[in-house]
Amino acid sequence: MSESSPTDQESPEVAALRTEIDEAGHRARRSFEPGHRAAVIGAGMLLLVLGVVLPWAGDSNGIDVLLSRVPPELGVGILPQVFAVTVLLFGLVVSGVALAVRRWGLAWLSLIGCGHSIFEGMLAIWTRQTAPGAPGPGIGLLITVLAIFVITLQWVKIAWSRD
């Protein structure tokens, strides 16, 4: 005699319900719930925008650095420009999309990109401190590095919270 499985004896309605429950479980495994960390990331993103519009080198802000509109005598190299690109890309765009769609893959991408941006930000500060005869890092650059650090810490907590 062969044993019949419970799915062999199910009505079509129960089978459809089982499929719907399985699909809901699959969707839940692909998404995350940031809770209060979403507000902290949002505040970090606002702080990041504030840092980008404040001076990074002399009177030039982060937008000027990003668009290469900095006077040559300030000695701003490529590292602050690369930092401006990555901080805006990962700190604002990818983080914003990740919070909107709440997918684990985007949470990890935000974590990795923001973490990399911290490293680039520290290098950007270092290049401003070691440029001969040029002003040091501006308050905007320091605030931007602090903001991306706060955002990264929140992404670490979110990305590693998956059960």
- Radius of gyration from the CA trace? 23 Å
What structural class do helix, strand and pairing data support?
A: mainly alpha
> Which strand order spans the largest sheet, edge to edge or round the barrel?
1-2
How many separate domains make up the residues? 1
- Share of β-strand residues: under 5%
What is the total tally of β strands?
2
Helix content: 55-70%
Q: Could you list the spans in which at least 5 consecutive residues all have pLDDT below 50?
A: none
Query: What form results from the Cα inertia axes?
Result: rod-shaped
Number of helices: 6
- SSE string: HHEEHHHH
| Overall pLDDT | 88
User: How many angstroms does the end-to-end distance come to?
Assistant: 41 Å
Q: Give a short account of the largest sheet.
A: 2 strands, antiparallel
Task: Please describe what this structure looks like.
The chain crosses the membrane at residues 38-58, 78-99, 106-126, 138-156. Keywords: Membrane, Transmembrane, Transmembrane helix. This protein has one domain. The longest helix is centred in the last third of the chain and has 27 residues, at 104-130. The protein has 163 residues and is mainly alpha-helical. It contains six helices and two strands; from the N terminus they run H-H-E-E-H-H-H-H. The mean pLDDT is 88. Helix 2 (37-53) packs antiparallel against helix 6. The chain has a two-stranded antiparallel ribbon. The chain has helices at residues 12-30, 37-53, 62-66, 78-101, 104-130, 139-159; strands at 55-57, 60-61.
